[in-house]
Design a protein that fits this description.
Layout: H1 12-20, H2 28-48, H3 54-78, E1 86-87, H4 100-109, E2 112-115, E3 122-126, E4 136-144, E5 149-151, E6 159-161, E7 165-168, E8 173-176, E9 187-196, E10 201-207, E11 215-218, E12 221-228, E13 232-239, E14 253-257, E15 263-264, E16 266-271, H5 274-293, H6 298-316, E17 320-326, E18 332-339, E19 347-357, H7 394-400, E20 402-405, E21 416-421, E22 445-448, E23 465-468, E24 471-474, E25 485-494, E26 499-504, E27 512-515, E28 518-522, E29 539-544, E30 553-559, E31 567-572, E32 578-583, E33 588-597
Parallel strand pairs: 2-19
Antiparallel strand pairs: 1-15, 2-3, 3-8, 4-5, 4-9, 6-7, 7-8, 9-19, 10-18, 11-12, 12-13, 13-17, 14-18, 16-17, 20-21, 21-24, 22-25, 23-24, 25-33, 26-32, 27-28, 28-31, 29-32, 30-31
Helix pairs in contact: 1-3, 2-3, 3-5, 5-6
């Protein structure tokens, strides 16, 4: 039975439950659509109950749920996101390199295979960054020291296995199902292949969401904006000259920018023309009729959808339709397509990665710094996670701390919540999210009624409300009056005195060495200005390239000594030329004032 007849976004299931919790003051048409969606599903399942062929009944029930999820995606198009969230442009890393070819070479050259098992019975591949174009990276075998190979199971996600190896998608590891013995030949390399149809150039189309039904043609493509609202849009792509397209919908990069020019996070996609889903929905009812007549088989279900797909391909052949959803208000709808020759052969590269020993080292009397594990990833990959802003001032907090209400399904004890979102800053590396906010003092959280008067509830009584990590949770049903406004003074921990000291490769502090792509710190000799302990970080170090850009880290190893401090080795994607130390400095607590009208919590089911 075909399960993938209706293509769904990952966000759909979550969206369905969001719709079930729509507050009563939402627009009635949306609530009506939600009710109709569930009623249609229940009616179809009820109609299926008399079907005698249980295999057919089960297959049709699955289609009923698929159709409900598709209806939910239609609601996804109509209901705006609760909050705005941003991301980086998907192709931002291209700016680091001279061409797509160079980016690809760096991606492949910096692949590693590692193991933390002394017998190498579990091996994981690691990529230096997410490759931005459609591709296949397939691992086929483990090569042994005697030249033989162990075949790997086919793997995409989840868990798969063959007679010898089990693959875990959650951990991205290949593990021998039976422990390797001392007489078994040791695994020494991970063997695979990379393949992609590399773009020769990129073709960009920008639309104003108000320009529905407008088309742009360039470089052999015609892109039409066919649907749009404040937070999503759909496009159709065809060949400008009517020739067959050399791409599919997975080649389409859809992005959105808001009025500030920042890229909005994408919340979901849907591939295929709306007609595909409309016809699919009609087919479900027709198939149920046939099943009730006793004239339907499982094979006929498959054939019916195959015929429908063929008809649509004949009608719309060579045109791709895709819908993109975003977490914010779209100012610019952007589509990026690969420009390439239809006769262009796929790029392929065989990979044979030595398995690097990343197992925990045993304590030794001495550490030979010239015999350390080598992981040669010499091509630069830059660290994008380091933001320019060190921390927020009290004034900046008023604009940049985000406040969201009731974004998580309410529980039975606290049906409403107000959560504080601190933007990403450099001090996050010293302050855990659990330490960013301190508990407000007694009396610093106050709820007000509709008349603007404080509601008399015991301060800090968890029966009414509580402060947890970064949120105020409360249950308005327990209050003697309905709370409509909140005022709270929340202590925010900051590190405004973070300082940085850089050392070039030829003038490093005692105990620090740079060898190839490694920074080696011998803690017997390295004496930082402040010291970390198991509970608190007061300094961190980073590597910069010759052009003063931060390099991304591959991994690190610790070599302990039996007596005295050990040696830390950090491996980078690229060649460090500068060793930089960040010192946290003193922390400072800033009083942040929350003052807002409270939203209705979602009703409990």
């Amino acid at each position: 039975m075909k399960k993938a007849l209706i293509v769904l976004s990952i966000s759909t299931v979550a969206a369905i439950f969001t719709f079930l919790l729509i507050p009563s003051d939402e627009p009635p048409d949306v609530q009506a659509l939600t009710d109709a969606m569930l009623e249609k599903k229940d009616a179809r399942l009820t109609r299926l109950e008399p079907v005698k062929d249980k295999a057919v009944q089960k297959s049709l029930a699955n289609l009923v749920y698929d159709a409900m999820f598709t209806d939910g995606m239609e609601l996804d198009f109509q209901i705006p996101p609760r909050n705005t969230a941003y991301t980086r442009a998907k192709l931002a890393r291209l700016d680091d390199y001279s061409s797509i070819d160079e980016l690809t070479e760096v991606f492949l050259a910096n692949q590693i295979a590692g193991t933390t098992y002394r017998d190498r019975s579990c091996i994981w591949p690691r990529q230096p960054f997410t490759y931005p174009f459609q591709h296949q990276l397939t691992w086929s075998a483990i090569r042994l020291e005697n030249g033989e190979t162990t075949a790997l199971p086919s793997h995409v996600s989840g868990i798969s296995r063959n007679a010898e190896i089990e693959y875990s998608g959650a951990r991205n590891t290949f593990c021998y199902r039976k422990s390797l013995g001392p007489d078994d030949p040791a695994p020494v390399a991970l063997v695979g292949e990379f393949s992609a149809r590399l773009p020769q150039k990129l073709v960009q189309f920008d639309f104003n969401p108000s320009n529905i039904d407008q088309s742009q043609s360039k470089d052999g493509y015609t892109v039409t904006l066919v649907e749009a609202n404040d937070f999503s849009y759909a496009v159709e792509v065809s060949s400008a000259d009517g020739a067959p397209l050399t791409l599919d919908s997975k080649d389409m990069i859809g992005e959105a920018l808001d009025k500030t020019g920042r890229h909005l996070s994408r919340t979901g996609t849907r591939a295929g023309r709306p007609e595909l889903y409309e016809v699919s929905d009609l087919i479900v009812d027709d198939l149920i009729d046939q099943a009730l007549d006793g004239t339907l088989t499982e094979a006929q279900i498959d054939q019916r959808f195959d015929d429908m797909q063929s008809e649509l391909n004949d009608k719309h052949g060579g045109r791709f339709h895709k819908h993109f959803f975003f977490s914010g208000s779209v100012k610019t709808a952007r589509i990026i397509l690969p420009g390439r020759d239809a006769k262009q052969a796929p790029f392929k590269r065989k990979l044979d990665l030595p398995i690097r020993n990343l197992a925990r080292r045993q304590p030794a009397r001495s550490v030979d710094l010239d015999q350390l594990e080598r992981i040669p990833t010499f091509h630069p990959v830059y660290n994008y996670s380091i933001k320019e802003k060190v921390d927020l001032t009290a004034k900046e907090m008023n604009k940049e701390i985000g406040i969201r209400q009731n974004e998580v399904s309410a529980d039975r004890k606290y049906s409403a919540k107000v959560k504080l979102y601190y933007p990403r800053v450099q001090s996050d590396r010293f302050l855990d999210m659990f330490d960013r906010y301190e508990n407000p003092a007694p009396g610093q959280i106050v709820f007000f009624n509709a008349d603007g008067a404080p509601i008399d509830v015991p301060a800090d009584n968890p029966d009414y409300y509580r402060f947890m990590v970064s949120r105020i949770e409360y249950n308005p049903d327990r209050f003697p009056e309905k709370p409509v406004r909140l005022s709270a003074t929340v202590p925010v921990v900051t590190t405004p005195n973070l300082t940085k000291k850089g050392y070039k490769k030829n003038s490093l502090p005692d105990g620090v060495r740079i060898v190839d792509n490694m920074i080696i710190i011998d803690h017997a000799d390295f004496k930082p200005e402040s010291t970390n302990d198991r509970f608190e970080k007061t300094y961190l170090f980073f590597a910069k390239s010759a052009d003063q850009r931060y390099l991304s880290k591959v991994t690190d190893l610790h070599y302990p000594r039996t007596e005295g401090p050990g040696v830390d080795v950090t491996y980078y994607n690229g060649l460090p030329e500068v060793f930089e130390i960040w010192y946290r400095g003193d922390k400072k607590v800033v009083a942040y004032q929350v003052d807002l009208d409270l939203e209705e919590p979602a009703p409990l089911e």
